[in-house]
Amino acid sequence: MEEMSFLKNISLLGATGSIGRQTLDIIRQHSDYFRLSSFSAGRNIEETRKIIKEFSPKLVSVLEKDDALRLKGEFPFVQFVYGEKGLTETALFSESDTVVNAVMGSVGLIPTLEAIKAGKTIALANKETLVTAGHLVMRAAQKYHVDILPVDSEHSAIFQCLQGENSQNVARLILTASGGSFRDRTREELRHVTREEALNHPNWSMGAKITIDSATMMNKGLEVIEAHWLFQMPYEQIDVILHRESIIHSMVEYQDHSVIAQLGTPDMRVPIQYALTYPERLPLPVTKRLNLAAIGSLHFEEVDFDRFRCLAFAYEAGKAGGSMPTVLNAANEVAVKAFLDGKISFLKIEELIGKALEWHTLIKDPDLESIQCIDRETRRFIDSLL
């Protein structure tokens, strides 16, 4: 095999989050192939300092202006920017060719759109970008001939299962779901679950918001909408199956009923690295090899949509299309934050999302300004119910 000899300059949005830290692991492991040219962080300034010292980026964005000024005094040879504008500047940094979008929430949309217009390759871990405005993002990617490479383990798995195949031959996409922290509990048992219980995911190491989304199964719902856009697949051909071990990350069934699956240990560094090296592969010594003999057996169950109502909401919003997924996402973000802040109970999350979907009047093909307006209005509506 011919040795790989590329160098990718990376802009990393959300460097101090769970996906961001694991992306830095990949860059650290393969410093001959990747360079961190720019990155964004939020309020974790101590971690930001460590990243600057280790990776020597040329541009760094933080949330607050005061933090940017303070860091500029400490690192005079680094350019510092801040706020949402700084996030976009990071994505557009002239020396970067690849943008890893690992921020949380709909704040990731504008930097992604602008990076696409600038011709950057997008490694996408930010679900909300496609959920909120999938039609705009995919149109832009097509117009500017930009690759959007999935970082989510499920979408990376599907992407890998499609390699060398004709997409016209696909019968359905099958996304696997662990079921989250409460997969064995009845709805009655969910009434009084705590924040700490919800954050205890059985398989994956993720950020707080994604872990709660996993417990409600909204995470899988958002992934269904993402899969619809990434792979141009009707919702009727996207299924979800419960798979406790998180070993099979997703599957593709073809029209001859042959099913191709992608397997691996539950480690996000695998799909992150694949997005960065595609179409090539590199060794990944930091992750464990899959030992199926040691695992022994794998388990699968059908999804109960009455039990996991957030997943049902996601299918409904996705099939309605237009502005409905924007409402779904915004309502979920506010409701999850309220739960994490101790303001509402766990089951109240889905109740609030349901109310938002009933309250909103569908707009079929919203432009960016309309999407941003709907996002704000939905957040205000949910806040009024808290």
TrEMBL record:
Q: Where does NADPH bind?
A: T16, G17, S18, I19, G42, R43, N44, N126, E128, G207
Q: Which SUPFAM superfamilies does UniProt cross-reference here?
A: 1-deoxy-D-xylulose-5-phosphate reductoisomerase, C-terminal domain, Glyceraldehyde-3-phosphate dehydrogenase-like, C-terminal domain, NAD(P)-binding Rossmann-fold domains
Q: Where is the 1-deoxy-D-xylulose 5-phosphate reductoisomerase C-terminal domain?
A: 148-231
* Domain 1-deoxy-D-xylulose 5-phosphate reductoisomerase N-terminal: from-to ranges: 10-134
GO biological process terms held by the UniProt record: isopentenyl diphosphate biosynthetic process, methylerythritol 4-phosphate pathway involved in terpenoid biosynthetic process
Every DXP reductoisomerase C-terminal domain range: 263-380
Q: Which UniProt keywords apply?
A: Isomerase, Isoprene biosynthesis, Magnesium, Manganese, Metal-binding, NADP, Oxidoreductase
Question: What superkingdom heads the lineage?
Answer: Bacteria
User: Which InterPro entries does UniProt cross-reference here?
Assistant: DXP_reductoisomerase (IPR003821), DXP_reductoisomerase_C (IPR013644), DXP_reductoisomerase_N (IPR013512), DXPR_C (IPR026877), DXPR_C_sf (IPR036169), NAD(P)-bd_dom_sf (IPR036291)
Pathway given in the UniProt record: Isoprenoid biosynthesis; isopentenyl diphosphate biosynthesis via DXP pathway; isopentenyl diphosphate from 1-deoxy-D-xylulose 5-phosphate: step 1/6
Task: Tell me the protein family, please.
Answer: Belongs to the DXR family.
Q: What is this protein called?
A: 1-deoxy-D-xylulose 5-phosphate reductoisomerase
The organism that produces this protein has a lineage beginning with: Bacteria, Bacillati, Bacillota, Bacilli, Bacillales
